[in-house]
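Bug #77: duplicate submission created two jobs. Keeping one. Sequence:
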Amino acid sequence: MEFKLRKAEPRDVSDILRLVKELAKFEEMEDQVILTEKELLEDGFGDTPFYHCFVAEIQGENSSDDPKVVGFVMYYFTYDPWVGKQLYLEDFYVMEEYRGMGIGSNLLRHLSDLAMKTRCTGMMFVVAENNEPSVQYYKRRGAEDLSQEEGWRLFRFDKDSLVKMGTPAEE
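Kept job's structure:
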């Protein structure tokens, strides 16, 4: 079965959200997806996109069917003051029944080419601790586990913490 990679378009937002939810379900975090199609549309296809995305699609069963989006990769660029530009791989998913066809490898190859063309010094990403198949998938391709190699810890300020820090203390 042949597939095609292409830059995501506004019409793909519902498929992107569907795949995000599938990935979250796989990671047993489905209840944490609160993003809406409207937000995805505004945030990725507005005047200042906060993310970029490529989708993988296959032709439908019949030649008259619309192509079906079966995978995606979401990324953005960051800057590390020690080494410069970095491509950050935020989400990467191929539907289970379409794995083993080279779709994931091609999505990663496409991102790697993009990172090199934009003179990035590396690609960063996070993998769930319990997702051993993905950890091994990335390691086979040369990724370093910085949590073990360099001892980095991942932190997050949630919205409530941001509000608290951003609100001036009363005197």
